[in-house]
Every structure is written in structure tokens, then in C-alpha cells.
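Section 5.1 Outputs to date
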Amino acid sequence: MLTVALALFLASSPPLVTAEGVTLEADGRIPWSAPPVGVQLDVGVPDGIGASLVVTPGRFLRISVGGLSNGVGAGVRLGVMLVAFPSSPFRPLLGVDGGYVFGGQAAWLPQLITDDTVRAAISGVNVGFASAQVGFELGSKHVAFTLRAGLSYIDVGLPSQTFSTGGATTVTARGLAVSGFIPSARLGFIFSFG
């Protein structure tokens, strides 16, 4: 009977409010809030340089989608991140990402490589990857530094190519595919709004 009376009293009591006007949760903690949208800038392996839109749909969950470049081609990346202690300045992270960099040829490549055969071989490399990483985020809920490391499965493909060896002679090279696990890492910043 005493338990029922206590429960009714707690349910009917007004919410706790601090001197600053913040309404506390039932257990006396400040309610969690996070900016719903952010931008992440990072550099890493096998990703290259990336920029992503980050959405925070829940307390411990973030979803990111963005673009990246490895210096030769451009690509896309999608990721899901679990965040421990989201209201703390130091937040452990656990995430998975997948992406694909389409083969291309950067404008700066011809200046570095004068051999047409070598330049053509580099220009069609496609890279697909899936990464699982752990790390941490350090900073406020609006600006934070991130560092992650883990393991990535990569699939690198080079399409068949035909090279001219001079004159009327040409050589056709068959496509090449290499896949396997490699260590991965990512260093970046996240800027959140709202």
C-alpha cells in the first residue's frame, strides 16, 4: 500500500526544475539533447579524403552519408555509428562504413607521370570497401575531434586496358582484381548544428 501511495505521489509531483530553468528527468539528470545534423570532414585509409552529412536520430546512434576521393577517383560512403556516453566530452565510438571509389584520373596525374602507359593503367582503378572501426570523439556536442582505427575489407579492380607500344603495335592487358583485409584508420572533425 505504501508503494502504491509513493508511486502516485511521484507521478503527480511537478517536474524538477533547476535555478537556470532546466527541467530535469525523473532521476534528477539533465535531459540529453544533441544537434540533429552535422558535417564530418576526415582523412583515412582506405577512404581517402571525405566529407559527410551526419544525422543523429537517437541518443546513441548516428548515420552518415557523403562523398570521398582517393586523389585519383571520387566516390560515396555510408556509415552507422554507435556513440557511448553521448553527453560526455569524451565519447567512445563503434562504427561500420561502406563505400566505393569510382575509377578516374585526377587533373594533377599527368604532371607527375609522363609515361602514357603507366598513367593509363592508374586511371581506371575502382576501390570498394567495408570497414569496422573503434575509436573516440573528443569535444563539445557542436565541435569534436575524432580518431578511429580498425579493419577494412577492400576490393580493388582494374579493367582490361589496351596500350599502344608505338607505331601500329598494341598490347591488351586483362583486368586485375585484388581483395582482402587491411588495417584502416580515420582522423577527422565533426561540426554539428541545431
